[in-house]
């Protein structure tokens, strides 16, 4: 969408290659590298069976109970790496590759999602903020582009473009708030896996690598979002003065 908008802008107002395309390229490359890293790391440690022979679902139940949490359901969800914790319904959903698998990778991912449940139980501030931002971020991501495009089509209507950029900024803020939430959940996961002896020290090293790779995808997403926002600002920020 940003590429199309940039092309429209260049055709109508500037007849040379827009150098801000480099920001889109950088963001795409970062995201591709992070995605490839998490997939290869997860695949590698999915082949390493835990000595406890505990499945992801079993590990999740043990972790939650050890943390004094008994009201969270554990369910299977289709897909690969689609694992997530739903704070609204108090449900921890584990993907097919995690729910019934006994690998170090599966247990690590399950523990990470338990980390979110523990955050929810303790009222972890960044998680509360992220949950609060969800409606605004969803609306902002959907409304931003129509507003910006409408502003351009109607003859560079700056107020609409500004509002569109502001809407997009809310979704960028959401990706930034997500970072401490995800990193904290991983730290909690590693700590509780060690405390409960679900994994031994050597297995924990593999789990840390899986969770670190997963965390990089959130960093990449935030970086790509920031670069896209920066490009919008560079393209449209000064047009009211032109």
From TrEMBL:
Keywords: Membrane, Transmembrane, Transmembrane helix. The keyword Iron does not apply. It comes from the Bacteria. The chain crosses the membrane at residues 20-38, 147-174, 210-234. Signal peptide: none annotated. The keyword Cell division does not apply. This is Neutral zinc metallopeptidase.
């Amino acid at each position: 969408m940003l590429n199309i908008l940039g092309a429209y802008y260049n055709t109508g107002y500037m007849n040379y290659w827009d150098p801000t395309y480099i920001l889109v390229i950088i963001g795409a490359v970062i995201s591709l590298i992070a995605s490839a890293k998490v997939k290869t790391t997860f695949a590698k440690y999915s082949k390493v069976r835990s000595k406890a022979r505990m499945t992801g679902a079993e590990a999740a139940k043990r972790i939650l109970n050890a943390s004094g949490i008994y009201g969270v359901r554990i369910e299977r969800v289709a897909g690969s790496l689609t694992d997530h914790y739903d704070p609204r319904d108090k449900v921890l959903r584990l993907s097919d590759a995690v729910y019934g698998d006994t690998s170090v990778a599966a247990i690590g991912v399950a523990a990470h999602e338990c980390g979110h449940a523990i955050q929810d139980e303790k009222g972890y501030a960044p998680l509360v903020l992220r949950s609060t931002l969800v409606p605004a971020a969803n609306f902002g991501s959907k409304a931003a582009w129509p507003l910006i495009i409408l502003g351009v089509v109607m003859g560079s209507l700056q107020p609409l473009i500004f509002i569109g950029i502001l809407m997009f900024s809310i979704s960028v803020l959401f990706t930034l708030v997500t970072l401490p939430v995800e990193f904290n959940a991983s730290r909690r996961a590693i700590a509780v896996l060690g405390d409960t002896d679900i994994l031994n020290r050597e297995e924990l090293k593999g789990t840390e690598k899986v969770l670190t790779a997963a965390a990089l995808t959130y960093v990449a997403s935030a970086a790509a979002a920031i670069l896209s926002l920066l490009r919008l600002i560079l393209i449209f920020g000064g047009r009211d003065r032109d």
